[in-house]
Structure to design on (296 residues):
């Protein structure tokens, strides 16, 4: 009986233990106990919270928080760039988790002024996904679920790294959007996915995470592969617009590919599904390259 009482006391202390973490902006965040009412300020944050076992603690989420299915039922608090501060305050959250480069700094300041702790994330590399799983688990008190999820992510990532390490490089243009024409810079997590697959982002020297580029710049870079995303599961029509330039290597080799944006543009555990697809596409391009050389 004493042992059971001691265990209950231990768990109660653990539940009340203060949590102190530093977010990706360098800001310290302290909670007197694991968060029980969380608002998610970005779709990828919502998805990662569910993966970390904390989905039931989310009381509000932004638009497009649509994975897993249960996320669709969470009350909305506006979009990640246009938060409904009144709605958030009414939910009385004890923690908000946001997106450093996506949420408005003014909105974040107002949430903090309301006394709501805000933890901001900005994943730049694939390893950061596992780190965020662990941090979200610590913040929500679901570490026993988050740690295995992070370990599984790292194990799958290691397999992909081993499989594609040393593969011949493939120069790639990743197209986020068509009007305006947008890509990813070297510090964007998609660039890390490209590296994982043995690819070279032709615009990796650009500092903005999602820079605008010109058609002329793409033609000058002459990528061997063009990968586009879009807005949903369907391949966007504008991928085919590149066929207007038949001398472009990616067009000449018929290396115009598509990956659903949710699998590669959200830094969540599903990012490895998008990475696996990209790696396969680059392998296809390598095969065409070898075949072309063999025909000479």
């Amino acid at each position: 009986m004493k042992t059971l009482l001691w265990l209950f006391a231990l768990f109660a202390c653990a539940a009340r233990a203060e949590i102190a973490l530093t977010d990706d902006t360098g800001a310290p965040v302290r909670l007197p106990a694991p968060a029980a009412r969380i608002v998610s300020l970005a779709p990828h944050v919502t998805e990662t919270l569910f993966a970390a076992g904390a989905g039931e603690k989310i009381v509000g989420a932004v638009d497009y928080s649509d994975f897993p299915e249960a996320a669709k039922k969470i009350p909305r608090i506006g979009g990640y760039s246009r938060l409904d501060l009144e709605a958030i305050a009414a939910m009385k959250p004890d923690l908000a988790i946001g997106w450093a480069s996506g949420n408005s700094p003014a909105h974040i300041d107002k949430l903090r002024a309301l006394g709501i702790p805000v933890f901001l994330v900005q994943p730049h590399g694939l390893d950061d996904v596992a780190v965020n799983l662990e941090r979200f688990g610590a913040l929500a008190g679901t570490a026993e679920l988050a740690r295995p999820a992070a370990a599984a992510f790292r194990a799958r990532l290691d397999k992909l790294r081993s499989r594609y390490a040393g593969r011949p490089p493939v120069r790639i243009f990743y197209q986020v959007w068509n009007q305006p024409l947008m890509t990813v810079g070297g510090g964007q997590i998609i660039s890390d996915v490209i590296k994982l697959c043995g690819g070279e982002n032709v615009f990796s020297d650009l500092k903005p995470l999602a820079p605008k580029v010109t058609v002329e710049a793409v033609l000058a870079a002459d990528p061997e592969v063009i990968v586009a995303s879009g807005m949903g599961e369907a391949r966007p029509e504008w991928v085919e617009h590149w066929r207007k330039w038949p001398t472009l290597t990616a067009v000449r080799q018929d290396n115009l590919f598509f990956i659903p944006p949710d699998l590669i543009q959200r830094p969540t555990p599903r990012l490895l599904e998008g990475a696996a697809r990209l790696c396969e596409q680059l392998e296809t391009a390598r095969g065409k390259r070898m075949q072309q050389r063999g025909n000479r």
The domain at 16-150 is CATH 3.40.50.1980 (Rossmann fold).
